Task: structure prediction
Amino acid sequence: MTETQTAPTPAPSAKTARDISDALREHFPAELVGKLPRITCGACSQNKGQCGDHRKKKCDECGVYTTPKHIHIDFVGHADVTNRLLDIDPEWNWEPFATDENGMPILEHDRAGNPVGLWIKLTVGDVTRIGYGSCPSDQFEAVKVLIGDALRNAAMRFGVALNLWAKGERQDPTAENAIASGGKAARRLRKGEEPERVTDRDWMLAMFQQIQDAQNDAMLMVLEGECKTKYDSHALTVHDAKSLRAEIDKRRRMLAKATQGEGVAAGAE
Result:
């Protein structure tokens, strides 16, 4: 190799897991780190960024016209996260956790039918991890925002901009999604109305992992029972229940196929 030549970039398969992890976790330069306001007043959050005590004004730091009752969350945009993934693995890919009969991603909706959540699988360097994107119920172009937020969330599981996520959580432990408005106003249920279903994301991620690790149908039946208990206690959304059901069915098919293969091999002997 001559001095003017440069060594070719190794394919992801030729890199070690540590190489990929270290490259993904590199800090982003300051010029790529933006500021997003996180509203800390529940009344402002429920009233388009202002309330009787706080009126909207332009923030000198983030430039957003909103309530003065907010903190700032450092973040890296969807495009810059995508660029990092492409640098590390040009063949990276993502897919929704569940799709409908038309092959479209199944989204989580609020009571008014607005899309507010999306579970995805992100694959980088032949490793797949789960991510979740969320947005406010009145979000403009919600699907685009959900995809971008889900990619950032899943990429964080690989270490992308992890230092910024950690800093944001220390500032506000409820602010995992920087784009969502802070604070929720509680209200009394109407007659005959069910409590709102809210999924514990950590439980959801752990359940997905247990399903993928299940070695037989008996284990899957136990996990099915746990999911049903969660759903019956309103601790699991309809969307997430469908996603878990799809994953259980997928794992059950994989186990059945493996068993059939073993049977054929035994017969051949």
